[in-house]
Design goal:
The protein is an alpha+beta fold and 1060 residues long. Helix content is 26%, strand content 25%. It has an eleven-stranded mixed beta sheet. Bound molecules: zinc ion (ZN). Zinc ion binds next to loops.
Length: 1060
C-alpha cells in the first residue's frame, strides 16, 4: 500500500472540510447524550494534592524539553510486520559530503503565482465615514479630565421635547454573568450559584410573560440541562419559543480575545452552537461579550461567519468610549482591515460606561443607577458604594423614581444615534434566589407601567432580550433584520481592534497578556494535540468508509474522548482561564482538566494510526500502552519503529528527537535505507548528560512516515561535539564520556551555522550579537538581552490583570558568569547559556525549508525566588522600524501597531498570539511564538516580550490575590530575518506617432491596427505603475495611475514599472 501517496492525495482533497465536518459526520452518533462515567469520575476525583502533583509532574516534563510539540505526534510501537512499502525517496548518502547529506532530495518548491501575492500589495480605499482605530489613537490626547458624575465622560443634557415626535424606546435586558471558573472552580460555581439561577429562571420567567432573560455560557447550560427532568426541559423550550429566554452568542464560554488562538475560538463556538442546535433547536443571532479584557476583530469576523447579525462589546479604553460617545459612534459596523467591500460587516454596540453592572448601565450617573439595582435594597448582602440605597417602588414613590430613572435613560440615549436605548440589568452570578428575581422584576415592572401609562413622558419601556434591542434598533433605523442594508444605515464603519484596554487612569490591562505563561503554553500544546487527533480521526473514519470497518475499531469511544477534550479546551478559552486571572486553585483545576483529557488523546491517535498504517487493529490494540506521551522517553532494548504524523496541510521536513539508552543507534527508513542521525547529550543538569537521537523526518501533508531504529554501529549516526565556556571559571562535565568535549581555557569566538544562517554569539554572555544571512552574505546586528521590570511604588501595583511598571526595564545582569555550552552536529547546532533565572538556547537546524531559515529560541524561565519582578527578552536590531511594529490577533490576522510616547509604557504592550514583527524598506524581523505573551517595540528596531511575572499583590480587579504560583516555564520562539525582495524595475517609454492619412497607404501602410493612442497594461505583469518624466527624474502628479494609458499624437510618455 502506498501509504503516503494515498494520504497526500486523499488528505489534500478533504483537508478543507475535514476538521469541522467531524461534527456532521458524527452527528448521528448522538454522543452528547451518552455520559461517560469513567471520565466524570476522574474529573470529580479532585484532591488538591494529587492534582498539584500532576501539574508539577507536567511542569517537570515541560521544562526539560522544548521540543514537545514537534515530538508529541510521534507514536512508538512495533510496526515491523505491517509496513510493506514506504513512499520514501529518502536515500542514504555518504557522510563525507557533509551537511548536504541532510538534504537528500530537494524539496519541491511551488512557485507562488504573482496574483496570490497581491493581497499585501493592494491599497485600501477607506469610505468617507470609515473609522480606523489607528487614526483614532493618533488623534486622541488620552488625557483623563474629571467628567463629573460620569467621571470618564462629560455632562449630558437634553431638551424635554426631544421625544415628542418619536418616543424613547427603552429595552432593559436582564443578564447574569457566569464565569466558568474565576474565584471558584467551574463545578463549585455551578453547585453554589449557576444551577440555582437557571432553576429559578424557569419558575420566575413563567410567572410573567413580560419577563425576559439572556444566557450565554453553554458550558454551564449544558451541565444544568443534563441534570434537569423532562418537564423542566419542556418549560425551557417554551420560554425560548415565547422569546422570553434568549441564548446569546451560544459559545461554550465567553472567551478571552487576546491570548486565544482562532482554532480554539472556533472550536468553542462550534461546540456551543452544535449543542444548542441538537438540544434546543436554537440559532443565536446576537453575540454578548461584556467581560473580555479588550476586543479583537477576529472574534467579530468569527461571529459574522457563524451567521450572527449583531454583537455587543464592553471593555474598551475609557478615552475611546468617550470619543465615540461624543461622535455618537458607539454603534458601528465592524469591518475587517482587509475587507474592501462590506462582506465582513457586523453591527456592533459598544457599551459607553465603566462596567456592565447596574450602576454603570442605566445611564451616566452610577449614584442614581445603583438605586435601581434592587438586589442592593437595604437589608441585603450588597449595598451601593455611593451610599444612597434603592427604594422599593410603591404607589407613593413611583412617580419620582420613574422620572429619576427616565432621566438616566434619556441621557444615555443622547450618546447614540437612534431613539432606542439599551439598559442591561445584571451583574456577576445574579438572580441566584427567588427573592432577587422578584425584587428586580417587580420593581422594574412598576416603573415601566408608570412610564408607559404616562404618554406625556414619550417613553416605551420594557424588558427585552439583546436581540429584541437590535430588532427594534434595525427597525427604527430602516435596516433589514439579518443583513445590514447599508444604503439606509446611519452607522459608520469601523476597522481595527480594541487593545490595550484601560478601565481607569493609567491602569492598562497588559499584564494578563503574560500572566501564568505555563498555562498559556500548555493551552497551545493541547490545542495542537486535539487538532491533530481530530484530523487523524476524521481520516480514519473516511478510510473505514472506503475500505470497510475492522471488527473492533472503537469509533464511539474515540469520539467521546475527542468531545471531552474539545469541551475542556473550550472551557480554558474563558476570559479568566487562559488569561491567568483565576484563583490559584481554579488554575490548578483547569490544569487538572487538561491533563484528564490530554491523557486519552494518544489512545485516539494510536487507534487511528494503527488503522491507517496496518489497515487493522486486531493485533495492535493491546499495544496501546506503548504510546509514549507527551514525552518520547524511548527505552531501546532492540528494534523499534517510529511513526511520525504530520497534521498540517504542507509537506514537512522536521527534526525528530527521541531519548535513547545507547548512542549506538541506526535510524532507517521503512525500506531499510540508513538516515543520518545525530546523537546528543541530554543534560539533566547543564553539565551532566544522558543521550538523545535526532534525525530529519520527511512527512507528506496530513501523512504518516515510518522510521525504524535499532541498536548497532552505524556510519550515518554521528555524535555531537561540545564546547563549554565560562568566563574566569572552571567547568566540570560529567556523564558525557562518549562525546568529544572541549573546555578551552582562553576566550574563543562562538558561532554556529546551517546552510541558511550563521550566528555570532558573545563568548562571555552567550547571547546573540550578529546574524549572517548566507543568501546574500550580509551581516545584521541582532542582539538578544534579558531585562527586568519592577512594579511601581504607587498604591496601585501590578497584578494578574494590570501591568504597572516602575519605569523602564533594567538590564538583567547575572551575579555570576553564565556557563555557555556549544553543540555542533550534522542535524542541528546550538548554543545554550545558563543564567540564574533563564536557560537560553539558540538552535539552528541543518534542514531545507522554513525550519532551517529561522533561529529556534527556547527560554526556560524560573523566577520563583523573586519579589514583584517581571522578566522580558529584548531583541535589538538595526532595523529602522521607527515607532511601527506588527502583532498578530489570535493567530488569524496581523494588526499594525504604533508605539506612542503620549501613552504610558504599559499601554504600548500588545497581545502576541503567534507573532510580532518589525520591518523597514529592506528587511523584516519576525519573532514567532509558540505561546501567547505580551509584546512591545518601545524603541526603533527593538522587540520585546514579557516571559513571566511574579507579583506579590492583588491589583483590585476582584481576584483578591497576587500571582505567586509561578512554574518553571519553557517559552519557545523562532526568530526569522527576511530580506525584502528587491522588486525589478523597468522604464516603459511609449511614443504615439502622428499620422497623415491624406496619402495612399497601399504597399507602405501599417502591418497592425492602431489603438487611437490607448494602451492597456495587464495588472498581473506589474506591481506598481507610476508616470514619471522622460528620464525618470520627476514623478508626475497629473496623470492618473490606472491601467489604461492614453497618448496624444506625437506624445512620448514614460512610466516607472515594478515588475511582479
Ligand atoms: Zn467574567
Amino acid at each position: 500500500m502506498k501509504i503516503s501517496r494515498q494520504f497526500t492525495v486523499f488528505g489534500s482533497a478533504i483537508f478543507c472540510v475535514v476538521v469541522f465536518s467531524l461534527y456532521l459526520m458524527l452527528d448521528h452518533l448522538q454522543l452528547d447524550r451518552i455520559k461517560n462515567p469513567i471520565n466524570e469520575e476522574r474529573l470529580q476525583n479532585g484532591q488538591l494534592v494529587i492534582l498539584q502533583d500532576k501539574i508539577d509532574h507536567l511542569e517537570r516534563l515541560l521544562a526539560e524539553n522544548n521540543k514537545i510539540i514537534a515530538n508529541i505526534r510521534d507514536s512508538v510501537t512495533n510496526l515491523r510486520k505491517s509496513v510493506n512499502n514506504d513512499k520514501g525517496p529518502l536515500e542514504a548518502k555518504n557522510l563525507s559530503q557533509g551537511l548536504v547529506d541532510l538534504l537528500p532530495f530537494a524539496p519541491i518548491w511551488v512557485l507562488i503565482p504573482s496574483e496570490d501575492c497581491q493581497f499585501s500589495a493592494q491599497t485600501y480605499s477607506k469610505a468617507a465615514d470609515e473609522v480606523q482605530m489607528l487614526d483614532v489613537y493618533d488623534m486622541l490626547s488620552f488625557d483623563n479630565p474629571d467628567g463629573g458624575v460620569w467621571k470618564q465622560g462629560f455632562d449630558i443634557s437634553y431638551e424635554e421635547n426631544e421625544w415628542d415626535q418619536e418616543p424613547l424606546q427603552v429595552v432593559v435586558v436582564p443578564h447574569s454573568h457566569n464565569d466558568p471558573g474565576w474565584l471558584k472552580t467551574f463545578d463549585d460555581y455551578y453547585r453554589d450559584q449557576t444551577q440555582h439561577i437557571l432553576n429559578n429562571m424557569v419558575v420566575k420567567l413563567h410567572e410573567d410573560e413580560r419577563r425576559k432573560m439572556i444566557w450565554s455560557e453553554i458550558s454551564y447550560f449544558s451541565k444544568w440541562w443534563n441534570n434537569i427532568d423532562i418537564q423542566k426541559k419542556d418549560a425551557v423550550k417554551k420560554l425560548i419559543e415565547r422569546g422570553q429566554l434568549e441564548m446569546a452568542t451560544g459559545g461554550w464560554v465567553m472567551p478571552d480575545e487576546a491570548n486565544t488562538h482562532y482554532f480554539a475560538l472556533i472550536d468553542q463556538l462550534l461546540e456551543g452552537h452544535q449543542w444548542l442546535e441538537r438540544n434546543l433547536g436554537v440559532k443565536p443571532k446576537t453575540a454578548w461579550a461584556v467581560d473580555p479584557f479588550g476586543h479583537s476583530p477576529t472574534q467579530a469576523y468569527l461571529f459574522k461567519q457563524a451567521g450572527l447579525s449583531n454583537m455587543l462589546i464592553q471593555r474598551v479604553h475609557y478615552s475611546i468610549k468617550k470619543h465615540f460617545a461624543t461622535q455618537k459612534t458607539l454603534e458601528f459596523f465592524w469591518r475587517q482591515n482587509w475587507d474592501q467591500e462590506s462582506s465582513t460587516d457586523i453591527l456592533c454596540h459598544m457599551m459607553p460606561f465603566y462596567s456592565y453592572d447596574v450602576p454603570h448601565t442605566c445611564g451616566p450617573d452610577p449614584k442614581i443607577c445603583c438605586q435601581f439595582d434592587f438586589k442592593r435594597l437595604p437589608g441585603g448582602r450588597i449595598s451601593c458604594p455611593w451610599r444612597i440605597p434603592p427604594q422599593v417602588i410603591t404607589s407613593d414613590n413611583v412617580q419620582q423614581r420613574a422620572h429619576m430613572l427616565l432621566d438616566q435613560y434619556r441621557k444615555k440615549s443622547k450618546l447614540f444615534m437612534s431613539k432606542v436605548v439599551l439598559a442591561p440589568l445584571g451583574d456577576d452570578f445574579r438572580y441566584t434566589d427567588a427573592q432577587e428575581w422578584d425584587q428586580q422584576f417587580n420593581n422594574y415592572q412598576k416603573l415601566f407601567d408608570y412610564m408607559n401609562s404616562h404618554p406625556e413622558l414619550n417613553v416605551q419601556a420594557q424588558f427585552g432580550t439583546i436581540s429584541d434591542y437590535f430588532e427594534i434598533l434595525r427597525k427604527v433605523t430602516g435596516m433589514d433584520q439579518a443583513g445590514m442594508n447599508k444604503g439606509v444605515s446611519p452607522f459608520p464603519v469601523l476597522s481595527g481592534d480594541f487593545f490595550t484596554y484601560a478601565d481607569r487612569d493609567d491602569h492598562y490591562w497588559s499584564g494578563y497578556f503574560t500572566s501564568r505563561p505555563f498555562y498559556k503554553r500548555m493551552d497551545r500544546m493541547l490545542e495542537s494535540h486535539l487538532r491533530a487527533a481530530e484530523i487523524l480521526y476524521s481520516l480514519t473514519l473516511a478510510n473505514i468508509k472506503m475500505f470497510g470497518k475492522p471488527s473492533n475499531y472503537p469509533a464511539v469511544e474515540n469520539y467521546k474522548l475527542l468531545t471531552e477534550a474539545r469541551r475542556n479546551l473550550g472551557l480554558f478559552q474563558h476570559h479568566d482561564a487562559i488569561t491567568g486571572t483565576g484563583k490559584d486553585w481554579v488554575v490548578v483545576d483547569y490544569g487538572t482538566r487538561y491533563i484528564a483529557f490530554l491523557l486519552p488523546l494518544p489512545v485516539v491517535v494510536h487507534c487511528c494510526r494503527t488503522i491507517l498504517v496496518s489497515g487493522d487493529i486486531e493485533n495492535e490494540w493491546q499495544l496501546r500502552f506503548l504510546v509514549s506521551f507527551p514525552m518520547n522517553v524511548f527505552i531501546m532494548p532492540s528494534f523499534r519503529s517510529v511513526v511520525v504524523y504530520n497534521p498540517i496541510e504542507q509537506a514537512r521536513s522536521s527534526v525528530i528527537s527521541i531519548y535513547v539508552t545507547t548512542p549506538h543507534i541506526r535510524v532507517l527508513t521503512a525500506q531499510g535505507r540508513p538516515v543520518i542521525a545525530q546523537i546528543t547529550a541530554v543534560w539533566e543538569h547543564f553539565t551532566q548528560a544522558s543521550t538523545e537521537v535526532s534525525f530529519v523526518a520527511h512527512v507528506p501533508p496530513l501523512g504518516l512516515a515510518v522510521y525504524q531504529m535499532s541498536e548497532g554501529v552505524e556510519l550515518h549516526t554521528e555524535l555531537a561535539h561540545y564546547m563549554f565556556l565560562k568566563k574566569g571559571g572552571h567547568v566540570s562535565v560529567t556523564g558525557a564520556e562518549q562525546f568529544r568535549v572541549a573546555i578551552p581555557q582562553e576566550t574563543v569566538p562562538v558561532s554556529v551555522e546551517n546552510p541558511h544562517l550563521q550566528l555570532f554569539v558573545s563568548s562571555t554572555t552567550g547571547l546573540l550579537e550578529t546574524l549572517k544571512l548566507k543568501e546574500n552574505g550580509l551581516k545584521h546586528s541582532i542582539k538578544v538581552d534579558f531585562v527586568w521590570y519592577g512594579t511601581t511604588s504607587n498604591k496601585d501595583k501590578s497584578g494578574a490583570y494590570l501591568f504597572l511598571p516602575d519605569g523602564e526595564a533594567k538590564k538583567y545582569s547575572p551575579s555570576r558568569p553564565p556557563v555557555i555550552r556549544v553543540t555542533k552536529g550534522p542535524v542541528f547546532s546550538e548554543v545554550t547559556t545558563t543564567f540564574t533565572h533563564i536557560t537560553h538556547t539558540l538552535r539552528l537546524y541543518n534542514i531545507q525549508g522554513v525550519d532551517g531559515q529561522a533561529v529556534e529560541i527556547c527560554n526556560t524561565v524560573d523566577i520563583r525566588g523573586e519579589f514583584n519582578q517581571e522578566i522580558a527578552m529584548r531583541i535589538t536590531s538595526d532595523i529602522n522600524s521607527m515607532n511601527r511594529f506588527f502583532t498578530d490577533l489570535n493567530g488569524f490576522q496581523v494588526q499594525p501597531r504604533r508605539t506612542m510616547s503620549k501613552l504610558p509604557l504599559q499601554a504600548n504592550f500588545y497581545p502576541m498570539t503567534s507573532m510580532a514583527y518589525l520591518e523597514d524598506s529592506n528587511r523584516r524581523l519576525t519573532l514567532l511564538t509558540a505561546q501567547s505573551l505580551g509584546a512591545a517595540s518601545l524603541k526603533s528596531g527593538q522587540l520585546e516580550v514579557i516571559m513571566d511575572r511574579r507579583l506579590n499583590q492583588d491589583d483590585n480587579r476582584g481576584l483578591g490575590q497576587g500571582v505567586l504560583d509561578n512554574k518553571i516555564t519553557a517559552n519557545s520562539f523562532r526568530l526569522l530575518l527576511e530580506p525584502r525582495n528587491s522588486a525589478q524595475e523597468a522604464a516603459l517609454i511609449l511614443h504615439r506617432k502622428g499620422f497623415d492619412c491624406g496619402f495612399s497607404s497601399r504597399n507602405t501602410g501599417l502591418l497592425c491596427s492602431t489603438t487611437r493612442g490607448k494602451v492597456i497594461l495587464f495588472r498581473q505583469s506589474y506591481n506598481t505603475f507610476t508616470p514619471v518624466s522622460l528620464s525618470l527624474m520627476y514623478e508626475s502628479s497629473s496623470t492618473p495611475k490606472h491601467q489604461e494609458i492614453s497618448l496624444k499624437p506625437m506624445e512620448i510618455c514614460t512610466y516607472r514599472i515594478q515588475l511582479g
